[in-house]
């Protein structure tokens, strides 16, 4: 099941609850989708909905539940918004890059040394 975040439900160790709560306090555009089964949060997609565009800030699936389509389901839910969507991803994160390409994201720029010395790729879906 996909829904919007309820911080009281977040007990998973893989989610940095304090970080997300702080982001929500500092970012008036912050939104977060969660994917849960059996009252357990297995993944989330944190993004900013800024007027006519969306910026994906973070997508994460609990390690033992990866490769089960959870990231795809979260992304598909977000794509229903039908807005321009951007994101940055480490150039070494082939799994994420392939996921984004599967949903029509295109590489539009490179950000040198964006992630602690690793180049970042700016991707966009219109």
List the keywords.
126 residues, 2 domains, Aminopeptidase, alpha+beta
Q: Which range best describes the helical content: under 10%, 10-25%, 25-40%, 40-55%, 55-70% or over 70%?
A: 10-25%
Total individual domains: 2
Give the amount of beta strand, in percent. Answer: 35-45%
Instruction: Tell how many strands the DSSP assignment holds.
Output: 7
Q: Tell the overall outline.
A: globular
Structural class: alpha+beta
Mean pLDDT: 92
CATH superfamily of the largest domain: Gcn5-related N-acetyltransferase (GNAT)
Order of helices and strands: EHEEEHEHEE
CATH architecture of the largest domain: 3-Layer(aba) Sandwich
Q: Strand order of the main beta sheet, please? A: 1-2-3-4-5-7-6
Radius of gyration: 14 Å
Distance between the amino and carboxyl termini: 26 Å
Description:
The protein is α+β, with helices and mostly antiparallel strands and about 130 residues long. It folds into 2 domains: about 1-70, Aminopeptidase; about 85-125, no CATH class. Helices cover about 25% and strands about 45% of the residues. It has 3 helices and 7 strands, in the order βαβββαβαββ. Strands 1-2-3-4-5-7-6 form a 7-stranded mixed sheet, with helices on both faces. β4 (about 55-60), α2 and β5 form a beta-alpha-beta unit. It is globular, with a radius of gyration of 14 Å. The model has no long low-confidence stretch (mean pLDDT about 90).
Briefly, what is this?
This protein is an alpha+beta fold.
């Amino acid at each position: 099941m996909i829904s919007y975040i309820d911080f009281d439900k977040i007990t998973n160790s893989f989610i940095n609850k304090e970080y997300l709560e702080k982001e929500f306090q500092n970012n008036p555009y912050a939104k977060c989708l969660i994917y849960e089964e059996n009252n357990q949060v297995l993944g989330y997609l944190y993004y900013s909905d800024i007027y006519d565009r969306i910026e994906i800030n973070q997508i994460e699936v609990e390690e033992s539940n990866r490769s089960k389509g959870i990231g795809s389901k979260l992304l598909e839910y977000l794509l229903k918004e039908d807005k321009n969507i951007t994101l940055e991803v480490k150039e070494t994160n082939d799994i994420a890059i392939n996921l984004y390409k599967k949903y029509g994201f295109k590489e539009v720029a490179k950000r040198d040394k964006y992630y602690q010395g690793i180049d970042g790729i700016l991707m966009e879906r219109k």
